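Review form for a predicted model. The reviewer records the input and the model, then writes brief findings.
Reviewer: anonymous (R2)
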Amino acid sequence: MAKNRRKYLRIIDANINRCREGLRVIEDTARFVVKKDGIYKRVRGVRHSLDILTRDIYPMLLKERKAGSDPGRKIKEGRRDGIKSILISNFKRVEESLRVLEEYGKLISADSGSKFKKIRFQIYNIEKSLLA
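Model under review:
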C-alpha cells in the first residue's frame, strides 16, 4: 500500500474513533442524564449509520492504526463545567471529525463524502434540539 494512503487511512481511523466516542457521550447523556428518549434514539441511529458507512474499510483502518505512537494520545483534555459543557464539547468533536471524514472519505469512495456531510447536518439539528 502506498505510504500516502496509509497516512490518510490513519486520519480516517482517528476521526471515525473520535466521532463514535463523541456520539456515545452525547447518546448516553441524552438517555441517562437529560432523559430525552427521542434525541438519544436519533443519536444512536446516527452512530449506527456511521458504523454501516465505515464497516467495509474497518479492516484496512485497523491494520494502519498506530495508537501507541500517536502524539495525540498525550494531549491533555480541558476541564468541564457541567453537563452542558460536556455536550457542547462532544458535539463539536463529532462535527469536526465528520468534516474531516467528509473530505478524506472522498479518497475511499466518490459518494462517501456526501454521506458524511448528510450525517454532519443531522448532528447540527440534533445539537439544536438538545441544547436550544
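Findings: The mean pLDDT is 93.
Further findings: Helices lie at 3-33, 37-54, 58-64, 83-105, 112-131.
Recommendation: see findings above.
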